[in-house]
Specification:
The protein has 387 residues and is α/β, with parallel strands linked by helices. 33% of the residues lie in helices and 17% in strands. A hairpin with a 6-residue loop joins strand 11 and strand 12. Helix 1 runs antiparallel to helix 7, helix 2 packs parallel to helix 7 and helix 3 crosses helix 4. The structure holds pyridoxal-5'-phosphate (PLP).
Length: 387
């Protein structure tokens, strides 16, 4: 840390993305990327658009928003785009969470939520103090006070790591509720009715549903955004649409909520989505069949890999996402992660209470999963767990 780093941020512990080591060639099953390339038309659109790199991108992203409106059956004014969905999550936390409406999310969920919560740093109070300079002009200072308290509430998931909607009944007490559906890193999903139950029973709260993995088997609540003014759905092109490197995320909600997000977006970075990514987004929506087929293949391989892992003695949480969350009674989560890494296979291990014995394994192509399974077999055999 330099001696200049603001004390507002000096205690921040940033999010640690899945590792991308360069020391050798790894089988990468640790960041939930798609094993499939983008559709050919997406690549062509990016190349074409790069010819106009000298021009700013459209800060209102009209073309892509209108195209999205068709796919998601909402109005263009209900959509805002972002540089990956992590960015729009940040906008949403800035826009809606406050002392009056504190953040609430499950204790086992996407690690980025608590990081943004700390960054946003509420509760915070802004004080205005006015003085006069030597020439008699008014000088206004705005000072920000950030009490050093955890600005969010984590609701424990059940013993089976599932979310109980009954734990999210806050009635008249306003909150900013964040739920990943399907949840990460468990892969467990809530039904549309369960989410609606939370939305209906918290009319004073904004309910943010992160649907990063919705295309792998979950039920989207996007249609409910036309009915409820307190529901915000977050989505991404990173996972099911093979565009993690393009950074394209979005939020869909009532036009009012979207207006608030645009106020933040236009204050932070109005050109937040670049030209090539906007063009890639339109082309990706036009290639729906290609991505649908890929998702079906991921779901098929997920079922197959799950069976194989169960046969190897793993406990496998039923997943509606493009990953499996697994533990084995005879090898610690951390040890399996290290052994796999030594053998050139990367999976994701979280050193966190309640889930330290698990590993999250991204679903790749069938041959990649076969390589993973062979490596696990070898490790378990060496350890004497398997004969
Ligand atoms: C991957 C992921 C995201 C964000 O992805 P972006 O690449 O920033 O769009 C958001 N939420 C969850 C739960 C994720 O797993």
């Amino acid at each position: 840390m330099s001696r200049f780093f603001s004390n507002l941020y000096s205690s921040l512990i940033p999010y640690v993305p899945g590792e991308q080591p360069l020391d050798r060639k790894y089988l990468k099953l640790n960041t939930n990327e798609s094993p499939f390339p983008p559709a050919p038309d997406v690549i062509a659109a990016v190349v074409q658009e790069s010819l106009r790199l000298n021009l700013y991108s459209d800060p209102t992203a009209r073309v892509l928003r209108w195209r999205m409106a068709k796919t998601y059956e909402v109005m263009p004014s209900q959509i805002v785009l972002s540089n990956g969905s992590d960015e729009v999550l940040n906008f949403a936390f800035m826009a809606f969470a406050s002392e009056r409406r504190p953040l609430v999310f499950p204790d086992v969920t996407y690690g980025f939520y608590s990081v943004i919560a700390e960054l946003t740093g509420f509760p915070k109070r802004v004080y205005n103090t006015s003085t006069y300079n030597s020439r008699g002009f008014g000088v206004t200072s705005r000072s920000i006070n950030r009490p050093n308290v955890l600005p969010y509430m984590e609701i424990p998931v059940k013993n089976d790591l599932s979310i109980d909607p009954n734990d999210y009944l806050f009635g008249g007490r306003p909150k900013t509720i964040v739920i990943a559906n399907p949840n990460a890193p468990t892969g467990l999903a809530l039904s549309r009715d369960a989410i609606e139950f939370i939305v209906v029973n918290n009319p004073q709260s904004v309910v943010i549903v992160d649907e990063a993995y919705i295309d792998f088997g979950g039920e989207s609540v996007v249609p409910l955004t036309r009915k409820y003014s307190n529901l915000l759905v977050i989505g991404t092109f990173s996972k099911s649409r093979s565009m993690a490197g393009a950074r394209l995320g979005f939020a869909i909600g009532s036009s009012r909520l979207i207006q608030d997000l645009n106020t933040i977006r236009n204050s932070v970075n109005p050109y937040n989505v670049n030209r090539m990514t906007l063009a890639a987004g339109v082309a990706a929506l036009n290639a729906e069949e290609y991505y649908k087929k890929n998702c079906e293949e991921i779901i098929r391989v997920r079922g197959w890999a799950r069976e194989k892992l169960l046969n190897l003695g793993f406990e496998v949480i039923p997943s509606q996402a493009n990953f499996l969350f697994v533990q084995h009674p005879e090898i610690a989560g951390r040890e399996l992660y290290i052994r796999l890494r030594e053998e050139g296979v990367l999976v994701r291990h979280f050193d966190k209470p309640r889930i330290e014995n698990y590993n999250r394994i991204t679903i790749g192509k069938e041959e990649q999963m076969a390589q993973l399974l062979n490596t696990i077999f070898k490790i378990l055999k060496r350890k004497g767990v398997l004969k």
